[in-house]
Amino acid sequence: MSAWSFYISTLVVYFGVDLLSGISLNLQYGYAGVINFGYIIFQAVGAYAAAVVTLGPSGGAASFQQYVFGANLPFPLPLLVAAAAGAVLAAVVGAFSMRRMRRDYQAAVLLIVSLIAIQVVEADVPLFNGSNGLTGVPRPLLWLPLSLQGYQWAYAAWVLALGGAVYLLVRWLSHSPWGRALRAMRDQEDAATALGLNITAMRMQVFIIGGAIAGLSGGLLVEYIGAWSPDAWGYAETFVIFTAIFVGGVGNYRGVLLGVLLVPIIFLELPRFLPQIGYPGLTDSLEWIVIGLLWMLCLLLRPRGLLPERRFLARPEPTRDSA
Amino acid sequence: MRIAITKQLAIAAAVGLVITGCAATGGNGAGGSGKAPLTIAGVVAITGSSSFEGQNQAGGILPAIYAIDHQGGVLGHQIVYKGVDTRADPADALPAMQQAMATTNNIVLVAGPDTASAPALVPILNQAKIPMTAVAGESVYNHNTLPYFWRLFPPDSANGTAMMLWAQRKGYTRIATVFGTDSGSQGDLPGVLASIKALHATLVANVSLTPDQPSYLSSVRQVMAAHPQVIMTESDATTAGTFFGELKQLGGLVPIIGTEATFTAPWLKAVHGALGSSFQKYYTGLITAPSKTTPAVTAYEKAVTADKSQVPSPWQSYLSNPFSITYWDGVMVVALAMVAAHSVSPAVFNSYIPKVANPGPGKTIVYTYAQGVAALKAGKQIQYFGATGLINFNQYHNSFGNQEAVGSNGGSQPVSLGTVTAKEIEAVSVSGVQ
Amino acid sequence: MWATLVSAIAFGVVLASIIAIAAMGFTIQFGLTNVLNLSFGSIMTVGAFAAYLGLEQGINAWYGLVVGGLTGAVVTLVLGRGVFRLYARRGAKLFEMMMVTLGLGLVIDYTVQAISRNNVYQFTVLQAAPLRFGPIIVTPTQLIVIALGAAIFLALEGLLRFSRIGKALRAMAAEPSLARSCGIRTGQVVIVTWLLSGFLCGLAGVVYIINSQSVGYTTGQDFLPLVVAAAILGGVGSPGGAAAAALLMGVVTQVVAAFGSAEYSTVAGFGILVVVLLTRPSSVLSRGSAETRLTI
After folding, report:
1. Which chain A residue has its CA at the smallest distance from B84's CA?
2. Cβ–Cβ gap B98/A10 under 8 Å
3. What is the residue range of C40's domain?
4. Considering only Cβ atoms within 10 Å of each terminal Cβ, which end of chain B, N or C, has fewer?
5. Would you give the distance in Å from CA C128 to the centre of its chain?
6. How high is the ipTM of this complex?
7. Has residue C243 been placed in a domain?
8. C129/chain B closest Cα distance in angstroms
C-alpha cells in the first residue's frame, strides 16, 4: 500500500499547486478579464528562483549545471523569493501587455511573450542551465524526524495549507470593494472609467498578484520534484489550467476547486489506468483529442462552467449576454 | 451543488477502480504456468518531441521479452512490458512512475529512466529497491553509488571524445558544432566541446539551432563562412533535415560526424532525404560498437524478426539500432541474474547482476538467455556476452565498451568504418564535464 | 561584413515570404470576422499533409500547392460556417471564440498526430543547383517562394482594391452594420473571406513544407506565433501591413542569426512586436477595446 500512498500524496501536492494556478488565473481572467496565456512563465520563474536560492553558489561553466544568483537560503525563504520573482516578472510583462487593448490581442501577445521566454532560457545556458534545466534541488526540512512516507504527506499538507490560505485570501480580496471594482471593470469598461477607476493600474495590480501566486506555485513544485527544465513548462500546461477553470466555473472559486480536481488530476491521471491500445502514444493523442472536444463542448453547453459565477441581484444586467 | 460534486467524484473514483481491477486481472491471464507475471517498466518519453526514445526502447525490449517468454520465462514467470511515459519532463514523470509502482507490485526492472526524468526518478526507484538500467548519459552518474542504478549506455562525454578521436584520426582540425537547443542535444554538447579542447582542435563555429524553424539559412552561412573541415552534430530529425538540406543546397557540405543519437531511423531518414546520394559520402556516426557476429547478435536479430508485428514500424531499423540492442542486453542480464539468484525479488537478485555479466576466471561464456539458464542449471558460473559485446560493470555500476565509427546508406544498417576503443577514450582526460 | 549582411537580408526575404503568405490570410480572416483563429496553424498542417499525400502519389509540386490551398479553403469554410457560427449564435464573444479555436486546434493537431503516428515525413521536391548573385546564394526553390509571396501580395491588393467583392470585404471589415444597410450581401462576403483566407492558409502550409522538405503534425502549430505576431504588428485587416511586418521580422531574424547567435534569432523576431507595443501601441492597436462584434 505504501506505493499507493506515495502516488496519492504526489497527486495531492499537484492538486495544491494546480489549485494555486487556478486561483491565479481565475483572479486574472474571471475577475479582471485578462487572458494570461503566458501563465506558465510566471510559474517557471518562481520555480527557477526557488531552485537557485536553494542550490547554493553556482560552480560556473566547469560544473555540470550553471545558473545565476546561487544562494543557500533556509526554508521558507526560497518560496518568498519565488513569489517575489513571479510578481517582478508580472510587473515587467504587465508594463507593456496591460495597456488598453482588445482582450484577444492581449492573449496573443502574452502567448508570444511566453514563447520568447522559453527560447531565451533555452538559448542562454549560463542563466538557468539552458534546456537541460536545473536538477538536484534539495527538498526543504529533510531533517524533520519523519519517515519518507510521513514526509510526503507532510509536504502535501503544507502545500494544501498554503493553497487554502491563498484561496481564502483571494476570495476575501475579491469580495472586497476592490474586487467589486474589478468586476465592474471587466463587465463595463467604459462605465468603470467614467466612474473614475484607473483601469490600467487595476489590471496591473491583478496581474502582479496573480504573478506572485504563480511564482509561489512554481517554488512549491520545484522543491517537491527537485528538477525544473524548459520541457516542464510548455504552453500546454497553461491550457490545462484554463480548461480547469472553464470546466469548473469562471469567477467562482468553488468552481475553480472543482475544475482543478476534475481536469489536471482526474482527467489526466485516469488514462494511466486504461489499458494501452494501438501503437505507443496513440492513447496520448486520443486523450488530447478528448480534452479538446470536452473543452469545446463545455464552451458550447455550459460556457460559464459547472458552477457558474453567482450574479449579484443588486446589479441589473440588461443585454450583456446577448452580444 | 455539493451533492453533485460528490457524485461526480464518486463516479470518477468508481471508474478508476473498475479499470484498475480489469487491468490487474487482465495481466494475470498472461502467465502460462500460473505464476504471476513479472513487469519490466519502460520509463522513457513515449510521446512528445522525444518519442523516438520510446521507439528505440520498444524495439529492443519487446523482442527480449518475447525471447525470454518463449524460453519458458524467468523461473516460471512470464514477463510483461509496461510503458511509463515521462514525456521527457520530470513533472510528468514523477506521478507516472508512482502510478506504475502503485498499480504494479512486481516491477523487476525499470528500463530507464531517461535523461530528463532521471533526477526526479533515480532516487525514488533506488529507494523502492527497483533495479534500473538508466539511459541517462549525464556525467553525474559516472561515479554513481546507488546500489540499484545500472548503466549500459556510455556517458555523453565518452561519445563526444570518441567523435573527436575519430576526427583526429581523419586529420580534421577545424571543427564546427551544430547542435539543437533541445535537451537531448544540449546534453551531449558539453562532452563534444570539452573533447575538442582536450585534443587541441580548433572550434571554428559553435552554432545552436532552435528546433523546427522554417529555415536556418543564416546559420548555414555562418558555418560555411567559418570553413570547417568537419561538422559535429546532433539535433532532432526535422531540424537536421532542414539545416543540412539548406547546407547542401548552398553548396557548403563538408563531412558530418554525428553523435550516437543521430544513428536512429528518423534522423538518418531525414538527413538522407535532404542530402540524397551525398549522404553516404559525408556522414559518419559514432555509436556503441555493435558486436561482431556472435550468437548473441544472431539471437537478437532472430527475436526482432519473430516479434516484428509488435515493435513500432519499421521493424528492420531495430536490427542495428544501438539503443535497442543495449536495452536487449539490459533485460537479458537482469533475467539471468534472477535465474542465478533463484529469486525474482530485486533485493536478492540485484547483487547478481554483475555476477552474471562481468568476465572472471572459470566463468562459462554464454550468448543467449537459453544458454545462460542451461549453464546455471548445470551449476556453472556465467558471463553473459551481450549483443553489444563485452559487459563489464565497474564499481560505479557503469559498463561501456568500444565506440564504432559507422556510415549509413540512409537505411539503419551500419557500415563499419573503424573502432575507437574504450581504452583510447579513457586515456583522454576531459575537463569541464563533471 | 557587407556580404554577410546582404546575404542575411536575402535569406530574410525568403523567410518573410513564407510568413507573409500565412499572415495575409490570417489578417484578412481576423480583420473581417474578428475571430482570432488559433486553429489557423492546425489548418496549415492539414493543408500541408494533403499536399504531401499528393506529392507521394507523384503529382508535381505546383499541383501540390493547389491541393493544399483548396484543402485549407474547404476546411476553413466548413469550420467557419459549421462550428464557429454555432458558437456565435449561442452568444460567444470575441475571447470565448478564441478559446473555441484553441480547443479546435488541439483536436485537429492530435487527430493528425494519431493518424500520422507521430512521424515526421521527409521528401525531396524542386531541388536544383544554387544560383549566385554576388555574395547572395539562393536556390531556385527559394526564388519561387519569394515570387509566390510577391504574386499573392499583388493579387490580394488588386482584389481588395479593384474588384466588387474586394470592396465589399473592405467595407464590411470597417463597418459591418453600415455595409449591411448599404446592401452588401454580408453572408456572401463572409463565405468568400473564409474561402480566401483558408486558401492562403493551406497554401502557406505547402510553401512551408516545400522549403523545409518535411512535414509533421506540429508543422503549423510551431509556425503560428510568427504568423500571429506579423498580423498584429501589421495592423489587423491589412494584407499590406502583414506583408511589411513579415518582411521586417524575416530580415531581423536572419540578420540576428548571421551576426549574433542563431538561438536568439526568433526571439529577436518576436521582440519587434514587444518593442512596438511598448513604444507605439496605438500604431499596432488601431482599434480600441470598444465592443467589436463577431461577423461570421
Report:
1. A272
2. yes
3. 17-237
4. N
5. 27
6. 0.84
7. no
8. 7
pTM confidence score: 0.83
Put simply, the answer to whether A262 touches B8 (Cβ < 8 Å) is yes
Q: Mean pLDDT: which of A69-73, B306-310, C16-20 is highest?
A: C16-20
- C200-236 per-position pLDDT tens digit: 999 999 999 888 878 888 888 888 888 998 998 888 7
Distance CA A312, CA B7 (A): 28
Domain positions in chain B: 156-290+401-427
Report the gap between the CA of B221 and the closest CA in chain C (Å). 7
Neighbouring subunits of C (3+ Cβ pairs under 8 A): A, B
Q: What is the pLDDT of residues B296-318, one digit of tens each?
A: 999 999 999 999 888 887 888 88
Q: Helix, strand, or coil here: A270?
A: helix
Rg, Å, chain C Cα set: 19
Cβ proximity of B329 and B91 under 8 Å: no
Best mutation target, A28, A102, A106, A321, to test chain C (most C CBs within 10 A): A102
* Facing residue for B213 by CB, picked from C4, C8, C266: C266
Amino acid of residue A303:
P
With respect to residue C155, please indicate whether it lies within any of the assigned structural domains: yes
Q: Domains of chain A: which residue ranges?
A: 13-233, 234-311
Class of domain B156-290+401-427: alpha beta
- Is C276 an 8 Å CB contact of chain A? no
3-state class (DSSP) for residue B288:
strand
Task: Give how many domains chain C has, as a whole number.
Answer: 1
Of B342 and A117, the structure prediction assigns the larger pLDDT to B342
Residues of B in contact with C257 (CB under 8 A): 216-219, 222
In a domain, C171, yes or no: yes
C-alpha separations of B177 from B4, B117, B205, B233, B234 in Å: 59, 26, 6, 6, 9
Question: By three-state DSSP, how is residue A236 classified?
Answer: helix
